[in-house]
Structures are given as C-alpha cells and as structure tokens.
Amino acid sequence: MRALLLLLALLVGLALMPASAAEEGSVLVTIMMPSKGSLPDVVTAYGTAGPAVDSSMTISLQSQGRVLRFDVTPGEAVKAGQPLLEFSVSESALGSYRQAEIALQTAKVERSRIAQLLKQQFATKDQLTQADKAIADAQTTLDTLKKSGSDQPDLTIKAPFDGVVSTIPVAQGDTIAPGAPMMTLMRADGLVVRVGIEPAQGFRMKRGDPVMLQPMTSGGAPASGTLIRIDGLLNPKTHLIDADVATSAHLLPGAAFKAQITVGHFDGFVVPRDEVLSDAKGAYVFQIGDGKAHRVAVTIVGSTGDQTAVTGAIDPAKPIVLQGNYQLEDGMEVRLSETETSAAGPASPVEQ
Which end of the chain, N or C, is less packed with Cβ atoms under 10 Å? Predict the structure, then answer.
C-alpha cells in the first residue's frame, strides 16, 4: 500500500509540473514496482521415447527348431497372453527329451535295485546316495528340456505382458539355434523419454528433478515428468550424457520431445531481462525517486526466458524503469508515459 501511495504521489507530482518544465531535458519512461520472487533454473535437452533399461524382453527358446508363423509385426501393440509366433521343435531336441525321460526312469529303477541290495547287505549307503543323486540329476535335465519346449513338437509362444513388438530379427521358416533371439518386446508401461544432456550440465542434475516435456510435433500437449536415471558415461555416438524421464502421459516409441529440466531456482528481485543494463562497471537498473532516475548496481542471479532475477540495493518502495532506460543516465529527470496507469508490470513471479 505504501509503495502504491508513493507511486501515485509521483504521478501527481509529474502531472502538476508545467509541460515545458516536465519535458525539457527529461526522458519518457514506463515503470513497474519491484517484486521479489523465484525463477526456475532450467536445463533444456532433446530426446525420443523408447524403452527403459529394464523394460524390454528378448523372446527365445533353448531348443533348436523352426519358426512356422509370426502372428504379429514390428510396432504392433500386444496384450498379455496374445500369441506371438508358432515354433516347431527339431527332431534332435525332441529326441533329447525322450532320452532324458529314459534316463530318469533308468535311474529310478537302479535306485530301487540298490535299495533292495542294501537290505540284503550287498550294497552300501554310499551307493544308495549315489543312486539318489543320479535321479536328481536326471530330473533336473528333464525339467530343463521341458522348460525349453523340447517336450512337444509344436509351440505357441505368447506375450508375457502388455507391450509393443520392438524387433523381429528372424524370418518365417528360419531354423533357430538354441537361445537365439526371435523377437523383442517393450513393456507398455516401460517407455521413457531418453534425452541427451550436455556434459557441462550433467553435474547439476539429480534423480527426482521435475521435467516438462514438449512434443516436437505440432498439436502435441505438454506433459510433466521426472528424471529417473542419469548415465555416468558419455554416449559414444552422441557425446552426450543419456538420461531417462518417466511420465504418466501416453508415449509412442520414437516420438521426439524437448525436455525442460528444473535443476534449481534463482531467487531475488524478478524483472524483465531488458530492464537490466550493463557496462564496464557491471550490471544495473534504474529506479525513480523525486522525479529522477537513479542507477542501482545489481548482481544477476540467473535468467529464465525473458525474465531475470537480480540482487542488490533495490528499494522495494521505488519503481524500476521498464522502458526508456537505454536513454537514461544517473540523475536524469524522467516523465511517465501517458498510458502509465498502474505499477503492475508484467506477470508477477512466484512470491516468496
């Protein structure tokens, strides 16, 4: 209230001055009242949507065989339990499973025989222990082959979770070696925006920093996110630091984004960037007192967009010159623009 009264008094005083006296040797200016606030310290990066480090799965089998048919294509969204491909197990893999079944049955028969001999004192406990171990080994081999699909000639491989088919590196009819990848799936909820950070900015960031994502395509809506991972090494291809941003917004793999990462805040008097001038003596602004402009030295804390946070001996009760400051010198008389009806200035920053 006191600042507003002072501003009104200044306006009245200038208005009552004779026109010739007010305009002769004075500079026409617009003003705003100083206001303390905070600006976000933002680092800008660019990247694309893709799978998080632990969000993809490679589909493979430990049995040799042949791909009979693919039920999906790269880029297709799939649901958990949806068929992905048909696979025919090779005769050699089926034969290995049958041999494992015979080995297990043989081990069980041998164990029974040794147990009978032990009762007749024609065998030792060590022999019985070895027979038990043989059964356990044979069972493990059989379970492994069964898990790999070698127990049935044809297999339908289904999606283990909701996701998107990323790659299919083999073709229908190909013979597949044990363990060879046949498909890669990305989790539907496992997509992130991977951005590249300039190495000089990497140390300023930490996990949990808020991020605003702006789609690079026209019409896309901004989305908020969080920084969840920061690499400790440079990407050898881009020479940038890879970082992952998680968001609840729907992401399409490959979509490009501009990421604005808030790494801190600049606190001080928040003014338009153009209000702050500089010369050999340093940065400064002009404040008005008694109808004259007075130079006030300031220190620039930081800038965001077209606003700057400064500190210095700024009097919060005296207006700061918005326009006309480039024509001013310390002590020059000023007059206010006829359209100057308030001291609100531009949009107010966040109040402290």
Answer: N
